[in-house]
UniProtKB/TrEMBL annotation:
<dbReference type="GO" id="GO:0009432">
    <property type="term" value="P:SOS response"/>
</dbReference>
<keyword id="KW-0235">DNA replication</keyword>
<keyword id="KW-0515">Mutator protein</keyword>
<dbReference type="InterPro" id="IPR043502">
    <property type="entry name" value="DNA/RNA_pol_sf"/>
</dbReference>
<dbReference type="GO" id="GO:0006261">
    <property type="term" value="P:DNA-templated DNA replication"/>
</dbReference>
<dbReference type="GO" id="GO:0005829">
    <property type="term" value="C:cytosol"/>
</dbReference>
<feature type="domain" description="UmuC">
    <location>
        <begin position="42"/>
        <end position="222"/>
    </location>
</feature>
<dbReference type="GO" id="GO:0000287">
    <property type="term" value="F:magnesium ion binding"/>
</dbReference>
<comment type="function">
    <text>Poorly processive, error-prone DNA polymerase involved in untargeted mutagenesis. Copies undamaged DNA at stalled replication forks, which arise in vivo from mismatched or misaligned primer ends. These misaligned primers can be extended by PolIV. Exhibits no 3'-5' exonuclease (proofreading) activity. May be involved in translesional synthesis, in conjunction with the beta clamp from PolIII.</text>
</comment>
<dbReference type="GO" id="GO:0003887">
    <property type="term" value="F:DNA-directed DNA polymerase activity"/>
</dbReference>
<keyword id="KW-0227">DNA damage</keyword>
<dbReference type="GO" id="GO:0006281">
    <property type="term" value="P:DNA repair"/>
</dbReference>
<dbReference type="InterPro" id="IPR050116">
    <property type="entry name" value="DNA_polymerase-Y"/>
</dbReference>
<dbReference type="GO" id="GO:0042276">
    <property type="term" value="P:error-prone translesion synthesis"/>
</dbReference>
<keyword id="KW-0479">Metal-binding</keyword>
<keyword id="KW-0460">Magnesium</keyword>
<feature type="binding site">
    <location>
        <position position="46"/>
    </location>
    <ligand>
        <name>Mg(2+)</name>
    </ligand>
</feature>
Amino acid sequence: MDDPLFGFCRDCLTSQRSAARRCHACGTPRLLRHAELYQLAIAHIDCDAFYAAVEKRDNPELRDKPVIIGGGKRGVVSTACYIARIHGVRSAMPMFKALEACPQAVVVKPDMEKYVKVGREIRLMMLELTPLVEPISIDEAFLDLKGTEKLHRDSPARVLARFAKRIEDEVGITISVGLSYCKFLAKIASDFEKPRGFSVIGEREAVAFLRDKPVTMIWGVGKAFAATLEGNGIRAIGQLQDMDESTLMKAYGLMGQRLYRLSRGLDTRRVEPEGEMKSVSAETTFNTDLSEASDLVPILRSLSEKVSRRLKAGNIAGRTVVLKLKTQDFKSRTRNRQLADPTQLADRIFRTGLHLLEKELDGTKFRLIGIGVSDLSDAARADPADLVDTQATKRAATERAIDRLRTKFGNKAVETGYTFGTGRRESEQ
Ligand SMILES: [Mg+2]
């Protein structure tokens, strides 16, 4: 059981005990061996360069080219494929910089609706492995496979390897898997040998494994907090391992407790299935900064429609409407409002967003506007008929009629008064 030479081949799934570099059955080097391989059951699955992979799948001409998903002069890179990454392109990099690094890159505008659909398809396949799936974003999730051996008549490790193959065959993209005994290390493991990776971190090696790693690997340690730690001479996780809990808590409060625990590989957080996607939103960076209602309102309307389309496609609804603005000098303003019932209607999202926006229009110039909903739930209880505001009920009915037309004739078939003629103004990301 605890034999470090015992494992299986990720390609042909043949079990084997050997120290050889290649599989004795199919000859590939993709052997998975680990002393705790068959005791670990918490996995983190992350799709490899997800948006770019979906675009390459759908357009084989892009396959061997550097592809950047993003857009607009002032936009940023949303995803870079692995070829573009070799040229130094990274996500969140300003587009002009990315194109300086890789001028031959093919830039593709993101098609969120498509990615949401593929993400959902993969999510449903994950749910065939275990009901304990906790999505972190559109393309990554934690899975708890404890106790599923009977159901699958196989170990979590082998079930996950088979799953990776299935995603490649049936969805046409690749994933990386991290397998461990807790979420913290499963997530670190999935990032280890991307793309098409499968890494294992066992309980017995955790402390030694973490010892020389940077503190930024710890969940919640961002740039600012890492700088604080560095100011106190702490860079490696091993230094935290040598400190006691009360010292760390005195210095950093609750975060100190987290540092103490995670640095030792102690993480008892459970995989929470109800966590679903936390919000659905859409945003736009402008080519020139805007301050006028007449400019901002039509954009807000078209973004609301986009959010609504995603909600409807995913059969979900949100109860809190969130408006996001970024000023000329890069300051963020986030405003939100909770509704009586969850909604998936563009009209309701837009009107609530408009109410929030009006209070912000004080001459400030904005470079970005975004709208979204959080508090997501199933669409079943969304948008009950409004008994007080009969106009709202009427507008909801109109919107559903427009949706049916759009499903039939395409999104551009029906434009509302707010968005008519504004289609080309924005650069979207
Ligand atoms: Mg990913």
